Amino acid sequence: MSKERRWFEQSPPEPQAGPRPTDIAKVKALWIQCPGCKEVLQQEDLQDSLQTCPHCGHHLKIGGLERLLSLIDEDTFERHDAGLSPTDPLAFVDSKSYGDRIAASQSKTGERDAYIAGSGMIDGIPVQIGTFNFGFMGGSMGSVVGELITRQFERAVELGQPAIVISASGGARMQEGLLSLMQMAKTCAALAKLRDEAKMPYISVLTHPTTGGVAASFAMLGDLILAEPNALIGFAGPRVIEQTIGQALPEGFQTSEYLVDHGMVDRIVPRSEMKETLARCLRLLMDPV
User: For residue 280, how many other CB atoms are within 10 A of its CB?
Assistant: First the structure.
């Protein structure tokens, strides 16, 4: 067809418009797919159920402070030592400096470090309680985290109150080297005083994941050890162990269920039942008659 006789102009087809990043963010803010049963869940419903799937009971991630406040009687939590902040004593650098990693985690979480400690009541029982924040450098334990836990145990001794630690940690913080590893002995020494001097119980609550130097110290030394369902609990990760020993591990190895079966954990407690279980256990441990 000649140019003079052409009575239309054909334009190339417009590209299909995909979802914009802002649209995807809005959808994620409203909905999430359960990793267990793959059901699509409303975020609002998950908030009401403490981030537990109503269909299969899968326990999704939950913030450390949100988890702690779900266990404490309303308006009874008093935070302690919130002003402690880590430094960089070794001037450690890998792909970025430790100082930059601290700053990034503080900006992301709004917290100074990976542990929140305080006082409160559980069904009217005064307790010293603390929780890890896995969002802060994987809940790793450095000097500040160790100091916060130690002070928590010391307050429990001074006040004659039981102590509860909710663990969710990748272990000792490698950027602090030996200073981090020292926290294992330091926290356990303070815990020993709680038992020997105050004669008060310590309940350890293990959540996903509890590994490394945290699992190898106070997390596994509870008078009673409770765990959430299907939590990863152990020292080294399963892949590291398999590569080291050159053998396949048993099915379910290092899960809460496996550890209950082998006597390392006392009971698996769903998140929705944790407060009631803690209150009942505290009363039994403090008044066994």
Answer: 12
